[in-house]
Specification:
Length: 120
């Protein structure tokens, strides 16, 4: 009888230790999940104004939005610089649609001029 009680107590102790270890592992994983949070682009990487989804350029498989068509030309001079700037700020850029054979990379139409405060 004493052996049975001792074995039961040991089993309960071991089970408790396993549960505590699982809880600690889950707590360590939570910060990693928080880092994976998606932060959408809301500001133009060139002028810093609010984006208008009618004005965009696709580069390196990513779609970047702008406040006005004038910012697209500036972006196209150094796209990697602006993409890095956005991603370093924690922005998750949308994937560009697959490029069709024989078509130029997508950009918005420059019709309509710049937005308020663009200065271009």
């Amino acid at each position: 009888m004493k052996k049975t009680v001792a074995v039961m107590a040991a089993a309960i102790f071991i089970a408790g230790q396993c549960l505590a270890a699982e809880e600690q592992a889950a707590q360590k994983e939570q910060p990693a999940a928080a880092k994976a949070e998606v932060k959408a682009q809301t500001k133009c990487p060139v002028m810093g104004g609010a984006i208008d989804k009618k004005h965009f350029a696709d580069s390196d498989g990513k779609r970047v939005y702008f406040c006005c068509p004038g910012c697209i030309a500036t972006f196209n001079k150094e796209p990697a610089k602006y993409i890095k700037q956005l991603e370093d700020a924690g922005i998750t850029l949308e994937k560009a649609p697959a490029k069709e054979e024989g078509k130029a990379p997508a950009t918005s139409s420059p019709a309509g001029g710049c937005g308020a405060g663009c200065g271009k």
